[in-house]
Write a structure and sequence with these properties.
The strands form three sheets. Strands 13-12-9-10-11-8-14 form a seven-stranded antiparallel beta sheet. It is built from six helices and 14 strands. 18% of the residues lie in helices and 28% in strands. It folds into two domains: 15-155, 2-Layer Sandwich (Gyrase A, domain 2); 203-266, Beta Barrel (Elongation Factor Tu (Ef-tu), domain 3), CATH 2.40.30. The longest helix is centred in the N-terminal third of the chain and has 12 residues, at 82-93. It is α+β, with helices and mostly antiparallel strands. The protein is globular and about 60 Å long. The protein has helices at residues 8-12, 27-32, 82-93, 142-152, 189-198, 246-249; strands spanning 17-23, 48-53, 59-67, 73-78, 99-102, 107-111, 131-135, 203-209, 220-222, 228-236, 239-245, 257-258, 261-262, 264-266.
Length: 268
C-alpha cells in the first residue's frame, strides 16, 4: 500500500482515529452551522459524514458524526489532525454553551466485526465496514479497510489528500453523502454551492488500474501528447486512486501513463 502517510502510525500501534466529544445544550446546532452536513438529527444507529472547510471552501478536516448519550455528539476524525480540529472548534464556539473534549485514551473507533451491535453503517458506501465509538483502544484492520475503500474508489484524508489541498467536489464528498446542499449555512458554503450549481468541477478523485509495479504517490499522469491529466494517490495490488482532470480525459491522446506505467482511469 502506497499512500501519503508513511505508515508510522500503523507500525507503532498508535491509533489512526481520534474521538472528540462536543457536548452541551447547543452542541448540535453549533456544529450544524459549521460542517458540510446536518448534525441536528444525530442518531445512535446512524453516522453522518461531514467536513469542516476554510472560508474559501477547501477541506480542513473530514469526520464522522455520531450521537453521544448526553445529547451531544462524538466526532471520529483523523488522529494526526485532531489537535488542530479541537483548536478550531474551540475558537468557533466563543461564548456558546458548548464543550469540546479530547477523548483519546478514553474512547476509540472499532471497525467491522469489532464494532459489534454498536456499529453503524459507513454513510459513504454500503461496501465499507461498520464503525462504532467504543470505550478503550482502537479495534480496526486498517490494511483491510484501505483495500476495501480503494476497490470502491473512495478517497481518505491523510491517505490521498491533505488539509487545505482540495475542494469537497474534488474528492467526491458530494457523491459520498458528505455535503448537504439544502441544510443551510456552513463555513465555505458559497464556494461549494457555486461549484455545485455551475458545474465547475474540473478535478475528481478517480479509481485507477494498472499492471505490475505501482506508480509512486504523486506521480504525474500524462497522455502521449504530454497533457497533464492529474496525479496518482494511494495504490495497492493493481488498483488505486488519482486526482484526475476529468475535463481533459475525453480528449486524451493515446496511452495514459504515470512513471511509465499504463493506467486506466475510471471517473466516479
Amino acid at each position: 500500500m502506497r499512500t501519503m502517510a508513511d505508515d508510522k502510525t500503523a507500525e507503532s500501534g498508535d491509533a489512526q482515529r481520534a474521538v472528540i466529544g462536543v457536548s452541551g445544550a447547543e452542541a448540535r446546532d453549533f456544529l450544524n452551522g459549521l460542517l458540510t452536513n446536518s448534525t441536528l438529527g444525530a442518531d445512535p444507529d446512524r453516522l453522518s459524514f461531514a467536513a469542516l472547510l476554510t472560508p474559501q471552501g477547501k477541506i480542513l478536516h473530514t469526520m464522522f458524526v455520531g450521537a453521544a448519550p448526553d445529547g451531544g455528539v462524538y466526532l471520529d476524525a483523523a488522529a494526526d489532525g485532531a489537535d488542530d480540529l479541537i483548536r478550531r472548534l474551540s475558537m468557533y464556539k466563543l461564548r456558546r454553551k458548548v464543550g469540546v473534549e479530547d477523548l483519546r485514551g478514553q474512547m476509540a473507533i472499532a471497525l467491522g466485526d469489532a464494532a459489534g451491535e454498536a456499529g453503524a453503517p459507513d454513510p459513504r458506501h454500503p461496501g465499507l465496514p461498520a464503525r462504532a465509538f467504543v470505550q478503550g483502544s482502537e479495534q480496526a484492520d486498517w490494511a483491510g479497510y484501505d483495500s476495501a475503500r480503494l476497490a470502491l474508489g473512495i478517497p481518505e484524508q491523510g491517505r490521498d489528500y491533505g488539509a487545505e489541498e482540495v475542494f469537497p467536489h474534488d474528492v467526491n464528498l458530494d457523491l459520498l453523502a458528505g455535503v448537504d446542499m439544502k441544510k443551510g449555512c456552513f463555513v465555505g458554503q458559497e464556494v461549494v454551492s457555486r461549484m455545485h450549481r455551475k458545474g465547475g468541477v474540473r478535478k475528481r478523485m478517480c479509481r485507477i488500474g494498472f499492471d505490475g509495479a505501482a506508480p509512486a504517490y504523486g506521480a504525474k499522469i500524462t497522455d502521449e501528447s504530454g497533457a497533464d491529466l492529474g496525479t496518482v494517490r494511494s495504490t495497492a495490488d493493481g488498483i488505486g486512486l488519482a486526482l484526475a482532470r476529468i475535463d481533459r480525459l475525453a480528449d486524451a491522446q493515446g496511452a495514459i501513463t504515470a512513471d511509465g506505467i499504463g493506467l486506466t482511469i475510471t471517473p466516479p
